Amino acid sequence: MTPTERQQWERLGLVWVASGEQPWARTHAALPTATMLDEERIRVYVACLDAAKVGRIGWVDVAARDPRQVLAVSEHPVLDVGAPGTFDDNGVNPLWLVEHAGRLYLYYVGWQLGTRVRYYLFCGLAASDDGGNSFLRVSQAPLLDRTDGELFVRTAPCVRREDGVWKMWYIGGDSWVEGRGKQLPRYGLRYLESDDPRRWRGPSRPVMDVRGGDEHGFGRPFVLREDGRYRMWYSVRTISAGYRLGYAESPDGLTWERMDDAAGIEPSPEGWDSQMVCYSFLQATRYGTYLFYNGNDYGATGFGAAVLR
């Protein structure tokens, strides 16, 4: 398959959704974030919601040979909500994992409710010294705090190291649009560099913006570099239909050409992912490359998997 051909994803189906097993995990399994425990096991971190719809992060271990086979589920959250008044006091969702200096770092989005606007979304950082079974905050302050042009949304990073440079693609925005009877945030794709994945400074660079009209945001970029080109899967957020999966390519990671039709997966005719396909995360294994993703209502129906054919 060449990068510009339409990708061929074979749906494997729904993998897991919370169904009230724990008080902190009544519903959802949002933002699947995968890592290999070994060649046979994949750990997928997800956000589950309690009865008040506040998210906490847990994990689901699945078989690498067939990710529909659930091996274990966490009984307790690996990261709970922040202290009252902090940027993540109304929910935490997983985003990205990085191993660095002997520790496992979890980038996550913190939710805080607003008064004049509905909410704020900023990126936090937590670290694990026990292989990802529990995480502690590196700081109670956001890793990516508000700045001009990114006053309300600054989150959803994809972090890669190339030639000694840490690179981050993420979403940021500072305005709202009206849709479906409520405020909806407007945000585009941004880029930062650093010499330390725990510290990100300086102004960001806008690298891809929404088209406007019905389209008002991009969700969760996932960036790979293959054969000298960058490839990105991301979620396109619209007023009329929620999220769809998009795809883009770039020669340098900064100038992107959208090729959304090449993403290769759309909502199903019926079922758990019939209205949305979003929040994608790719995981390569010895058995193939899997696409973990959410379906309807931003993860309310759980997360599923597809395999690249």
Give the key terms.
309 residues, mainly beta, four-stranded antiparallel sheet, 1 helix, 55% strand
Quick overview of this protein structure:
This protein has one helix and 20 strands. A hairpin with a 3-residue loop joins strand 15 and strand 16.
Structural class: mainly beta
Q: How many extended strands?
A: 20
Nearest-angstrom radius of gyration? 18 Å
Low-confidence stretches: none
Overall pLDDT score: 96
Overall shape: globular
Helix tally?
1
Helix content: under 10%
Q: What proportion strand?
A: over 45%
Distance between the termini: 9 Å
**Sheet of most strands:** 8 strands, mixed
H/E series: EEEEEEEEEEEEEEEEEEEHE
Q: Layout of SSEs?
A:
Layout: E1 9-16, E2 27-38, E3 41-49, E4 55-63, E5 70-73, E6 92-100, E7 103-113, E8 119-128, E9 136-137, E10 153-162, E11 165-179, E12 182-194, E13 205-208, E14 215-226, E15 229-238, E16 242-250, E17 257-258, E18 278-285, E19 288-294, H1 296-299, E20 303-308
Parallel strand pairs: 8-10
Antiparallel strand pairs: 1-20, 2-3, 3-4, 4-5, 6-7, 7-8, 8-9, 10-11, 11-12, 12-13, 14-15, 15-16, 16-17, 18-19, 19-20
Would you give an account of this structure?
The strands form 4 sheets. Strands 6, 7, 8, 9, 10, 11, 12 and 13 form an 8-stranded mixed β-sheet that branches. This protein is mostly beta strands. The chain starts with 8 loop residues before the first strand and ends with a strand. A hairpin with a 5-residue loop joins strand 7 (103-113) and strand 8 (119-128). The longest helix has 4 residues, at 296-299. The mean pLDDT is 96. The protein has 1 helix and 20 strands. It has one helix at 296-299; strands at 9-16, 27-38, 41-49, 55-63, 70-73, 92-100, 103-113, 119-128, 136-137, 153-162, 165-179, 182-194, 205-208, 215-226, 229-238, 242-250, 257-258, 278-285, 288-294, 303-308.
